[in-house]
Specification:
Number of helices of chain A: 4
Radius of gyration of chain A: 21 Å
Strand order of the largest sheet of chain A: 12-19-16-17-14-13-20
Strand order of the largest sheet of chain B: 7-6-13-5-14
Shape of chain B: elongated
CATH architecture of the largest domain in chain B: Beta Barrel
Number of helices of chain B: 5
Number of domains of chain B: 2
Strand content of chain A: 25-35%
Number of domains of chain A: 2
Shape of chain A: elongated
Largest interface: A-B, 45 and 46 residues
CATH superfamily of the largest domain in chain B: Cyclophilin-like
Structural class of chain B: alpha+beta
Radius of gyration of chain B: 20 Å
Number of strands of chain A: 22
Helix content of chain A: 10-25%
Order of helices and strands of chain B: EEHEEHEHHEEEEEEEEHE
Oligomer: heterodimer
Distance between the termini of chain A: 33 Å
Chain lengths: ~350, ~250
């Protein structure tokens, strides 16, 4: 059991999302940054799509009633375990009674805290993801609040060790984000000048940027036809451009349908980077081809495979293993003791 | 093929667009083709989202290429192209509505705007089944077609920030109801105690796109009784059959 001492600014349980019900108007939800979310699960030997906590801008404090292996990936929220700094993009052992605490995101926007065995909240339409606007999934369909108690799966699911992902698997946050875009389905609603504006300009993320969508500010994108369409479906990353000419990128909690023309869509692998950008950060759009988008997906999969291989190499069956936490002169160490054959 | 366009919606989305207007004929083709594609492709696609005049197919491009998916879509389009829209039976789900002023703060305005009495607005609103063209905006929100122009009323100039779940409204010549509390600019004329979306139930959605909804006027007491039944999980919606297509199309 994990006790929520402080919830953080906006912390929700998320898995890969509630796919399969968009025909009924049910938004998908799910982790905003699927890369960091999956990395945290893979570090623990979990199913990559297992439910984890998504903390936003400011993390919380969580007390572990039972010992557990956890992993932290994504935004750097300066995590500590009983006051001692922990490394981001890492797995670590939390002893019974241990307290994990997170601060303001020094880099990035969303941090993921995964636990071995996953967070055990009820499945709603096949997913544990929280969709707060609809009040479903996660913990009572809402963001966590202090006093909540979360169950997690059995910790003995497999052997894990404390490890940090190598630098080549860790994305850098901050600076201008370049988002690759596939045109469509309504790029013909815009003039060539409008398309040139989108791909030539720099856009700044406004204060209206949440799990539903990111409203951007910058040069006005010119429509060739009226901006309104007879509503059709909104894919993840869809770039809607209403009459005011400012793009809105649709994110995890996006509504399933919309009535504004969509000039294109940010490709899936790049949405993880956008999810880590904050209001005030700048983005640029780069036109990409279908082949480039599929290659980017393959590359993303290759990174997961590489992580899984690193973790599997450490999971050879051995004798009994015990994890201890030692404090020497005020510094905390996680120690694993193995029984030799 | 026959004005149907295949468009991209990100690397894992294919849009099959039949037109850019709201028409029962186009919408019928959307649902018919979407259903056949779902049957044919099974687990090879992620999901299909039908809308007024197109559907979006989500797929994993690492498992099936856009080219291969498009070929399958074209195959189905060729099959259904020659098939006439025969008579078929659609489901009509009855939606009980209490039109009391307490629930319909804009009903008097709708009546006045159209030069009708409040009772006439209710009679017209309940007189005919409405086609669920699509579901979107929020879970279970039905986009309905077929409302009489006689009760059409423009949206509020300043949308309300909070509309209670179950509110029934009119926006232009559209009508519908809000399944969950949300902001919105529709003129509110009544409220239904039934829920379009019931998480945790074996059949969590009351209706699907392609069904019809017909509003039924109920008293405040009947509203309360149905509300109670819904809360206890023992409400059974009244459902009827409706012959559609054929000559009518």
């Amino acid at each position: 059991m994990i006790e929520v001492v402080q919830s953080g600014l906006f912390t929700t349980v998320q898995d890969k999302g509630r796919w399969g019900y968009q025909a009924y108007g049910m938004p998908v939800a799910g982790a905003m940054d699927r890369y960091a979310h999956r990395a945290a699960n893979i570090l623990l030997g979990n199913d990559p799509d297992e439910a984890a906590l998504e903390m936003t801008l400011m993390g919380g404090t969580y007390r572990f009633r039972d010992a557990a292996w956890v992993a932290v990936c994504g935004a750097d929220m300066q995590g500590t375990l009983d006051g001692a700094p922990i490394q981001n993009w890492s797995s670590l052992f939390v002893p019974a009674g241990g307290e994990l605490s997170f601060q303001y995101a020094a880099a990035g926007c969303r941090a993921y805290l995964a636990v071995q065995g996953g967070f055990d909240v009820p499945l709603v339409l096949g997913s544990r993801s929280t969709y707060t606007r609809g009040g479903i999934g996660g913990v009572e369909g809402r963001a966590l609040k202090s006093g909540d108690v979360l169950k997690h799966g059995p910790a003995g699911a497999g052997r894990v060790s404390a490890r940090t992902l190598p630098a080549d698997l860790v994305p850098l946050y901050g600076g201008e984000v370049v988002l690759r875009v596939l045109l469509g389905p309504q790029d013909d609603f815009f003039t060539q000048a409008g398309l040139d504006t989108l791909f030539g300009g720099r856009y700044v993320i406004s204060d209206e940027a949440d799990r539903m969508g990111y409203r951007l500010e910058g040069a006005k994108i010119e429509h060739g036809k009226k901006p309104d369409i007879v509503s059709d479906a909104l894919c993840q990353g869809a770039i809607q451009v209403p009459g005011h000419g400012m793009p809105i990128v649709m994110m995890a909690d996006r509504q399933t349908t919309g009535g504004y023309a969509k000039i294109g869509a940010v490709i899936g692998p790049d949405l993880s980077l956008l999810a880590q950008a904050k209001p005030g950060d700048a983005v640029r759009f780069a036109l990409c081809t279908e082949a480039e988008a599929v290659a980017a997906l393959r590359e993303e999969q290759a990174r997961y495979a590489k992580m899984a291989k690193l973790v599997a190499a450490e999971r050879q069956p051995v004798g009994n293993t015990r994890a201890y936490r030692l404090t020497i002169n005020g510094a905390a160490y996680n120690v694993t003791v193995e029984e030799m054959e | 093929m026959d004005g149907v366009r295949l468009l991209a919606a990100g690397e894992q989305g294919l849009v099959v667009e039949f037109g850019d207007t709201i028409s029962a004929e186009i919408n019928f083709r959307v649902h018919q083709t979407a259903r056949k594609l779902t049957e044919l492709m099974g687990d090879r696609i992620i999901e299909v989202v039908p809308t007024y005049r197109s559907f979006l197919v989500y797929f994993n491009p690492l498992l099936i290429s856009r080219q291969e998916l498009s070929t399958n879509v074209e195959k189905i389009l060729a099959e259904v192209k020659n098939a006439q829209r025969g008579k078929s039976v659609a489901k009509v789900v009855k939606i009980p509505v209490c039109y009391d002023a307490e629930f319909g703060p804009d009903l008097a305005f709708v009546a006045e705007h159209n030069g009708l009495s409040v009772q006439e607005v209710i009679d017209i609103h309940t007189s005919t089944p409405y086609l669920v063209y699509m579901i979107g905006f929020t879970p279970g929100f039905p986009y309905l077609g077929g409302m009489s122009e006689r009760i059409a009323t423009p949206r509020l100039e300043k949308p309300r920030t909070k509309i209670p779940a179950g509110s029934v409204g009119i926006a232009g010549s559209q009508t519908g109801f809000y399944p969950i509390e949300s902001p919105g600019g529709w003129r509110l004329i009544g409220r239904t105690p039934v829920k379009a979306f019931m998480p945790g139930q074996a059949k969590p959605f009351l209706f699907e796109a392609g069904d019809y909804l017909q509003f039924q006027s109920v008293t405040r007491d009947e509203y309360a009784a149905i509300e109670q039944a819904v809360a206890e999980g023992r409400y059974v919606p009244e459902v009827a059959d409706l012959a559609v297509g054929g000559d009518e199309a």
